[in-house]
Design goal:
alpha+beta; ten-stranded mixed beta sheet; 42% helix
């Protein structure tokens, strides 16, 4: 029976939600990235006229993505409001420039300088020991690699465009980037290094740049940026080959790579021949709706080339109680981690974390306010790269904000509450509420 005398649960107002999100963004920046503006100001300024500082311009570009505006026009719409600009200055201590102003800077600023700032910021998170609890075997950080498209054009965008011609003779010009992201079981997907796939001239290409070539360059970047970071590389079925295996050995990296049935034929043949002798174990887990059975199997010391690797398999069967149906999945990996009964489960779990770069990584950036594939700069290749690197910094900041208990609590207040709605509350709060002395609450 309903208790008419029960005190109703108090839920936050839209203004309160907006305020909480804003304070969490400010606190994450102040706590985890306190040198952000200092790093921006240390760049070599290529401009002649300087109405804004470098920190103001790059902070403006950064907040296009932190605010999840999705375009320069929407950012400008926020900035037009005088109260919005005043409130922003009170909290972040910099002015908000017009979007065309920071776009002009990003067209002439070398993209590697912005990427180096990203590396400095992410390196500080490792120094703060933020990800230690998510390491594989208590030591190795999961780094997933994958490529994604960031823009496509009917006409050539720049000399570096990749091209694809359909069977009807229509040529599409596009840009791809290969990413290395730190991924965790908590859902974080944070960029460590980026490598653009690019052609070097305007000729028709017999052999264009590709993901395999870009990985060699990306791996070199990772080792240069994070020379002492213990890494466990996670990758899809494109990556089990001697080039990748050699790089991992040279860099002392572990790897867990998806193994498709049609790849590494001699290795797969030996695994299939010896499969009946594989060491096996079974685990089950259940909740109110499902019963899942996981069958694990592994083989060590299988030869490929002049080295030996391990083969691991997980067959997952899930019984759905309501529909009385079963879904089955099979996961197979090749790894340079010698398997034992006490680590095979965690090895499979780590291998499956590769999906984080697609779901929490690329999917989030394409569909949830960041608009990765939006053409933030239609004519400038350096600006396109700079926007991409700045987006990765903003995404790292927002992910840390979204993992705070305060934001998790807000998301649970209503059954259909979303992060996108919370960020809309944030923008409305900044445009409609005069902060006055409320900024002091940031340090409470």
């Amino acid at each position: 029976m309903y208790d008419f005398y029960r005190e109703p649960v108090k839920k936050s107002s839209a203004a309160e939600r907006g305020k909480i999100v804003l304070w969490k963004i400010a606190k994450v920046i102040n706590t985890h990235f306190p040198t952000l503006n200092e790093n921006f100001e240390q760049l070599v300024d290529p401009r002649v006229r300087k109405s804004y500082t470098l920190a103001e311009l790059l902070t403006g570009a950064l907040f296009v993505f932190i605010f999840k505006d999705g375009s320069r026009n929407l950012y400008n719409s926020d900035r037009r409001d005088e109260l919005f600009r005043q409130n922003f200055f009170k909290v972040f201590k910099v002015r908000l420039p017009q979007a065309d102003t920071f776009d002009a800077l990003l067209r002439v600023l070398p993209p590697n300088e912005i990427e180096h700032i990203k590396v400095k910021l992410i390196s500080s998170l490792f120094e703060q020991k933020l990800f230690r609890e998510f390491r594989f075997l208590g030591k190795y950080y999961h780094v997933a690699v994958d490529a994604t498209g960031i823009s496509s054009y009917e006409q050539r965008h720049c000399p570096h465009c990749l091209t694809k011609t359909s069977k009807h003779g229509t040529t599409t010009y596009f840009h791809y980037v290969l990413e290395a992201k730190l991924v965790t079981s908590s859902g974080l997907s944070i960029s460590l290094a980026s490598e653009f796939l690019e052609n070097t001239d305007r000729k028709e290409y017999e052999k264009q740049d590709c993901e395999q070539k870009a990985f060699v360059r990306l791996a070199s970047k990772i080792k240069k940026f994070f020379p002492r970071l213990p890494i466990c590389l996670l990758a899809d079925g494109l990556y089990p080959n001697n080039t990748v295996f050699d790089i991992c050995q040279q860099n002392n990296w572990l790897f867990i790579i998806t193994l498709k049935d049609g790849s590494l034929k001699s290795f797969n043949a030996e695994a299939n021949l010896l499969k009946n002798t594989a060491i096996k174990q079974t685990h089950q887990r259940a909740d109110s709706a499902t019963l899942t059975t996981l069958d694990y199997a592994y083989l060590n010391d299988l030869q490929y080339g002049n080295r030996k690797y391990s083969w691991i398999e997980c067959c997952e069967s899930t019984w759905h109680k309501e529909t009385k149906t079963t879904t089955n999945q099979r996961f197979v990996y090749i790894t340079n981690v010698t398997q034992k009964s006490d680590i095979v489960v965690s090895t499979i779990f780590s291998g499956r974390l590769r999906w984080k770069i697609e779901n929490e990584g690329f999917n989030e950036l394409k569909n949830n306010g960041y608009e990765l594939q939006h053409k933030y700069s239609r004519v400038s290749y350096p600006a396109m790269q700079n926007y991409y690197h700045i987006l990765q910094i903003a995404h790292a900041i927002n992910q840390l904000v979204e993992k705070t208990n305060a934001i998790k609590t807000l998301l649970k207040e209503y059954s259909k509450q979303t992060k996108e709605n919370l960020w809309r509350n944030l923008l409305a709060y900044m445009a409609m509420i005069d902060f006055k002395n409320e900024v002091d609450a940031l340090y409470d």
